[in-house]
TrEMBL record:
PANTHER family named in the record: 2-AMINO-3-CARBOXYLMUCONATE-6-SEMIALDEHYDE DECARBOXYLASE, CATALYTIC_ HYDROLASE
GO MF term list: carboxy-lyase activity; hydrolase activity
Protein known as: Amidohydrolase-related domain-containing protein
InterPro entries from the UniProt entry: ACMSD, Amidohydro-rel, Metal_Hydrolase
Amidohydrolase-related domain ranges (all copies): 64-336
Superkingdom of the organism of origin: Eukaryota
Length: 347
């Protein structure tokens, strides 16, 4: 377990534009970076987006998806891996489809997040991790039950089954309870003790959970944090949304906090390729550094929106619009998540 210990990375990335005003990101800005002999060359997203899986294997930097799901096929669910009642999926998300999608998009591996379709039954995802230990890393789902049974379950999933991250879904907490209750703090502390990051899903808005995240980060600085899907911050259109995004940027003061630039179709106000997210990505990279930012597809939900490969291509297109350097893009497309989960996805 010792080799898994997470050490937050601190980056000194050049700022693209000032974010001192909470309204600055309401506008699309053109950014010109001064060229020095140390300035990395810009990558052609079009070239990278059309590269094949074979091309990726010649590159030392692997392309890793930091956020996707896999669940049983209907046939598997009828037998060994049943869905949780009421959470039957409406999309195909089985392993064969996932492997096919990764191959077609030239993606080398992924962090699999336990889907709500199986809730706290991790057997399907565990079977995938055991079958493809060099391709996938598992993120389990925290069980915040009041009886504390989730603590033992978390430790078993990490120590016995090899999960290397855990997701906090605040909407699974008992009614009226926050993630900062006794169980939440014990789960969060245990994750840090075991060297696994905690991912937060703020689907109903960061403003509802920002104080909890701040409190947990302050009290337990050794626990690494992953913020899923830009914490569901969309391009701001009013003062309230502007404030929420500014609060997201302020979380960069905690060196253990990382951002997933993922599920772009959920946070953009525009159709594919989601170009309105360029100013947000620019400010996130300026605040956190590219080595604390990682892309994610949110497969299979991304498939009906723009296709799995389209989800990857959108990130590259947005990166060109910012623009990001080749080094920054390498961090976001795989290097950040590889660094977080050391010993995984090795060349």
């Amino acid at each position: 377990m010792g080799q898994w210990l997470l050490k937050p990375l601190i980056s000194a990335t050049s700022a693209r534009f000032s974010n001192s005003s909470s309204h600055s990101y309401l506008f699309t800005v053109s950014v010109v970076k001064p060229f020095t002999k140390e300035t990395p060359t810009r990558v052609s997203a079009a070239k990278m987006a059309t590269s094949s899986g074979a091309d990726n294997k010649t590159n030392s930097t692997k392309v890793i998806d930091s956020h996707l799901h896999v669940w049983a096929s209907p046939e598997e669910a009828a037998g060994k891996y049943p869905y949780f009642p009421g959470q039957e999926p409406t999309l195909r998300g089985d392993l064969d489809f996932l492997l096919q999608s990764l191959e077609e998009a030239g993606v080398d591996g992924a962090l699999i997040v336990q889907p709500i379709n199986h809730k706290f039954d991790h057997s399907l995802v565990t079977s995938v991790l055991k079958k493809y230990p060099n391709k996938f890393v598992g993120c389990c789902l925290a069980n915040p039950a009041a009886d504390g049974s989730g603590l033992k379950h978390l430790e078993e999933l990490i120590v016995k089954d090899g999960y290397r991250a855990v997701r906090f879904n605040p909407y699974l907490w008992p009614s009226g309870q926050k993630m900062t209750n006794d169980i939440g703090k014990r789960l969060f502390s245990k994750a840090g003790e075991l060297g696994v990051p905690v991912g937060f899903m703020c689907m109903k808005g960061l403003d509802l959970h920002i104080s909890e995240i701040q409190e947990l980060c302050t009290e337990f600085p050794s626990t690494v944090v992953l913020l899923d899907h830009l914490s569901f911050c969309k391009p701001p259109t009013n003062d309230e949304e502007s404030f929420a995004f500014s609060e997201l940027l302020k979380l960069s003061k905690f060196p253990q906090v990382y951002i997933k630039f993922s599920a772009l179709f959920r946070v953009s106000r525009m159709p594919f390729p989601y170009q309105d997210l360029a100013p947000l990505l620019s400010q996130v990279v300026s605040s956190f550094g590219a080595n604390r930012v990682m892309w994610g597809s949110d497969f299979p939900y991304v498939v009906p929106e723009c296709g799995y490969k389209g989800g990857k291509e959108a990130v590259l297109s947005i990166a060109n619009q910012v623009p990001l350097s080749s080094s920054e893009l390498e961090w976001i497309m795989g290097k950040t998540v590889v660094q977080l989960f050391q010993g995984q996805w090795v060349p």
